[in-house]
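Annotators were shown the component list below and the corresponding predicted structure, then asked to write short factual statements about the assembly.
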Amino acid sequence: MDSATSDAAVAYLAPTVQQSVKIIITGHFAVGKTTMVAALSEYEPLHTEEALSQAGETVDDLTWTPRKTTTTVAYDFGRLTIDPRLVLYLFGTPGQDRFSGLWEDLTRGAAGAMVLVDTRRLAESFPILDRLEELGLPYAVAVNSFDGAPRHEPDEIRRSLVLPDRTPLVQCDVRHRRSAADAVIALVEYLLVPSPEHP
Amino acid sequence: MSTGGGRRPLVRLHVITGGRGVPRHDVFDDISIVRLREDRVRRDDVVLLGPEPRRVIDLCRFGGLSVVEIAAHLRLPIAAVKVLLCDLFDSGHIKATEQISPDARVSPDLLERVLNGLRNL
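Structure shown to annotators:
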């Protein structure tokens, strides 16, 4: 129909690619998720929507029966070709509470999650860490180095977030590809260490 | 953004997916890689498909894409795309990489390769 006009702009996978791995980039509002996806992705982050059904969240005024509400959640993602056969997808997943129902779908099959935090708003990261722990999805934490944000000792941040000793905690400038990649490396190294939490 | 041709459809999603919201079988993950079966799509039967499945085929004619990329380019929710893909899979028009089972961990071999790829950026 109309799609032929767009194909020049579509970044197709190399014919040799056969495998894909997904990593979640999450964090509270405006923490730099999409910036990090953009720094790593080989194309401008793409945008998609997922319909999210929440059963029984509201009650019909007249009949008092639970009504199914459907919300649409939008998120950005990008892709990085790792080798001729393998690509990495990075999903910038909103961490706000109202999106919690989406998480099970989005995190399904994910290798792990990168949690971005802003030292000025550490408390906003608490529910995100809780949810990842509930889902059993291993994560690493990256402190996005915002200009003007107060510098904290890693130990201080670790204590505030109640992070286990083993959980990687790194500094990162999500605008820069090398820095963003190094943060994801810390996560993947952690995923490779066998542990009771992620056997 | 590179979604020029993905015009938002003017019909409701259950029309696009033939009234079904849930794929009959879980063939597709968000990152499953979808490719056309060339032997199949050359045949005339593609014209018999509805407009939405045809958009999927037109998009995929030039190479492989993941489910989430197809959704983004066609501007359809992932769930709707999965339903379309299931039909096209059943009819033999497309093939897909196996989906990772929800409980399975990504294999250490894949993670090692991701690590090397990121180090060599």
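Statements collected:
1. Residues 1-7, 55-67 of chain A have pLDDT under 50 and may be disordered.
2. Residues 20 and 43 of chain A are 16 Å apart (CA to CA).
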